[in-house]
Hints:
Layout: E1 8-11, E2 18-25, E3 30-37, H1 44-58
Antiparallel strand pairs: 1-2, 2-3
Amino acid sequence: xxxxxxxxxxxxxxxxxxSVKYKWNNHPKILESWAVTKKGNRPxxxxxxxxxxxxxxxxxxxxxxxxxxx
Length: 70
């Protein structure tokens, strides 16, 4: 996956209020991302949608997935 530098946004496809911001970091080959929620929504739905989409598009290239909460 090659991308120009910078952050991009993807919004929930379903009823989740909010979006996920992401950026490809080419040197360590890491896709960095975080969920931004609205109206008291918890990020689990947004993160689930995002991981599902990334796996559908890039499953062969993914070595691991690490999710940190904080």
